Structure formats: C-alpha cells, structure tokens
Amino acid sequence: MENVETVVVPSAKSLATATLLSAVIAAVLLVTVILPAEYGVDPTGAGRALGLYRPPASDAVPADAAALAEATPMASSGTTLTRSPVPYRTDEMSLTLKPGEGGEIKAVMAKGQHFVYTWTAVGGTVDVDMHGEALDAKDAAEATSYWKDEYQGSDQGIFTAPVAGRHGWFWQNLNDNDVTVTVRTSGFYERLMRP
C-alpha cells in the first residue's frame, strides 16, 4: 500500500486573518521604528522612547554671520573624523603686487572648518602674515596672526579656523618688480575672497 500525504489548504478566512495581522504588524513597525530611525518622523513618540529617533539633516548653507558662527563641523569622538555641513570646495585666486604694494586673500569660515592650501609667488619673494579676524571685528587691530615671515616664495599646509571669521594671508612685495601670488585652497569653508 502506497503512503499518501494529505495536504491541508488553509481556508479563505484564515488567509485573510493572517494577511490582516501581517499588515497591522507592518504598519506598527513602520510608525514606531522605520519612520523615526530612517526619516526623522516620529508621530507616536515611540521612536524617541526606544532611542531610535534620528532628526533629519539640514542642507541649508549659512547665509549670514550669525548662521555662520553656528555652522560648526560635527566632530566624532576623537579626531579621526570631522564631518561638515558645508560642501567640499576648491578655489584658486591670484593677485599681482606692484613694488612696495601689499594685498590679501582670505577665506570666510565657520569655527572649526578646515582647508588645505598652497601658495606661490612668481617674480620674487614676499613678506607674509597669515592671520584672521572674527566676523564682528571692527578693524585690523583685532586680527590674530598665525604665522609671519620674510622673503618667502611659497607655503603649504592645513588650516583650521579657531573662530568664525575671515582667515588668510597678507603679502607685501618689497622687490623692484611686480610679483604675482597664486593661492589654491581645498576643503570645507564658505568662500575665498579679496577683502
């Protein structure tokens, strides 16, 4: 005699009950877990209570001095990673200094923003003062000097803004001919400018 298995097919009522129960569980998980953790939407407050709520990130770029002062980078624990609310940018700017003339190029930066820089002087060496001042500084007397030197033809490094403000270089040409200084910056800052 052959062994025959009997297959029991669920009734339409039990299928409908299982489907409805699955939909209810999915809706509860959506509202209490997925929306708060992934989209920053917490209509029931359960996401905050469970520690899952993650507020949405803002894509706004600061437009004025007050907002710039608040736009500090988001540092992780330690110094391995620093995230930035402003996009990565690269700039290049040149200025030609006549004999005896001085000039500046600066970056507008929030506190803690960084850039990598290099500058070169073509036509002779220059005296340099890398300095910065807070956004609300009244005059040059409120500037802080980071590095001063004479007879320099180039420099490169990494700069981190200690305060929200304008940070950069003043060069003076003490040669008998014109000197052109070219600056290249890459990093996280608002803009490069000539004051």
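(ticket continues) Second input and output from the same batch:
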Amino acid sequence: MRALIITLPLGVVALLLLLVFAAVSFGAREVVRRRCSDEDREELADQAKNLLTGVAATFAFFVGFAITVTWGAVSAAQTAVEQQAAAVRQMAREVDNITDRARSVELMDQLRVYANAAAVDDADPLRRGTTTALPSATALDRLEDSVIAYAYGAGANEREAAGLSAAASTLSNSAFTVSAVASRAIPGPLVVLLLFVGALASIIMGITTVAYRRPLLIFVWCLIPAISITVVAGLAFPFAMRNGMTLAPMQAVAQLLGG
C-alpha cells in the first residue's frame, strides 16, 4: 500500500477516491429509490439529513487528527535531516583540525563519501521506508572505524580524539534518527477509519438526495472526503517529498565538502 500511494500522483489518488465515494453515494441512492415507497423515501431522507451533520463532523475530527499526526512526522523528518547536516558540518570541522594531515585527508575523504551517499543515494530507500540497509550505512561504518582507529591509536592528540569521537557519535545518532523517522507510517486502523467514515457519509449524502432527479451536488460532497484523505496520504510518508520535506540541507553540505 505504501509503494502504491507513493507511486501514484496525488491527483490520481484524489480522482480514484472521488469515484469510489461517488459510486457509494449513488449506489445508496438507487437502492433506496428502488426498494422504498415515496413516503418511506421522504422519511429516510429527513433522517439522513439530521444524521449527516454529525457524521460529517466526526469525519472532520478524524481528518484533523490524521493531519496532525502526519504533519508531526514531516516536521520530525525535516528536523532530523537538518540535524544530520549539522552533524556532518561539525564532523568536518573536527576532521579539519587534526594535526596529522594525512589522517585528516583520509577522514575527510570518507566523510565526503558518506555525505554524498546520504544526500543522494539514500533518497529513494528513505522514500520507500526501507531503512535497514541504506546506501550510506557502509560509508558511515567505515568512517566510524577510522575515527576509532585514530582516537585509540598510538600518538593521537587527546583533545582532538575526544572532539572527533563526540562528533562521530552525534553523526551516527543523527543518521539513526533519519532512518527511524523514514520508517514511520500512518496507522492502518486510522486509514480504515477514515475510509469507513468517508464512505458512511457518502451513503448518507446519497440517501438525502432520493427526492431529486439530478443530484449533481453529490460529486461536490464526495470531493470533500476525497481531497481530505488525499492530503493525509500526501503527508503520511515524509520522505516522499510531496509535503514540503526536502533533503536540501544534506545536499548543500555534500556540495560544500565536494568543493
């Protein structure tokens, strides 16, 4: 389901949902028109009108809750990327301050490889939520091993080793945070609940129109849950890059190191 939502343009998702809700609404309308007498239709229509407000308010509440949850994930993802970029910059400063120039050049090259992988190669796995083996993970492991070898090696400057180790730890934690946020997804029960309440509201809306010959406003009503759920889908996966989320901070740092 995640792969399908990410692959489909949001406009297509909205159109599909609109067609589904419209079909449900018109289906409920036709069932009532064929199975009920004129008197029963009017009674059902009146009851449906009274019920519609409450169901619509319930749907709006669930949509608001879902948007709050998903926007929180988008915000956390952007913050995590910014912290990762800041950790790379701090690591670069610590590496640049090493008095052993040969070791400094070696570590900077490894940091550059990691930054490029995190900024470019990680984008697609993060989008799909497959974070168990990110392309940057190997480069990060190699960098950490080199830092440990230097920090605990003979002749290492104690102050430089401490700063380098702290920067490497921060970098590792920031990379883990990015992976953790990328694996987040909107809870399945909440998705089911949104679809169920949206379909229920569409059924009720269809019943309210049994007295009309051309209930064209059904499409207007069905557009509301379709767009609402599409907005939730657009925010549900932060690294799908359809919600304001961007890897620009990491890309800028990678370009800086590359220069």
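Agent notes: The CA atoms of residues 151 and 162 lie 7 Å apart. The chain has a mean pLDDT of 89. Closing as not reproducible unless the customer responds.
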